[in-house]
Amino acid sequence: MAVQILRSPGIKHSVRHDLESFYWLFLWMILNHTSYKCTESDVDPWDSFSATSSRSASSEKFTWLSVDSSALEIPNNLPLTRLHRRWAAMCYSNTWQEAPDNPLNHETLLAILRSALEMSGWPDKDAARPTVLPLDSRKKTGAATTGQKRASD
Q: Is-contact 88 2, C-beta < 8 A?
């Protein structure tokens, strides 16, 4: 969820909030499916996802966008690293400015994506790292295991 929406629930929802929410999904996919590293030892990108309240979530996400996101690096994948950093910077400027000079919208996001896709340096044979859930996580979340149907209410 976008930082502004977490901080100010009554704020008028706009496209930039949806595109920031999509950024958080993008970050989650990087963390789960790449062999990333943080160049700063005290930075933990998972902090943005571990908050237990809207207030702490907005604070963790704002800190990530304003300071910590530049520490995330995807080794041997400069295009993905740059894409992440540019998108995070765009989200940050749209988080604290009511009318940003360079608003996050479909056009600006597509330009960032196109620029990244046109870069050389994308790795060959770079399969996603599989995510393995802890054995007890299915019990806690109520998720169905393979071949099982969800319980009906």
A: no
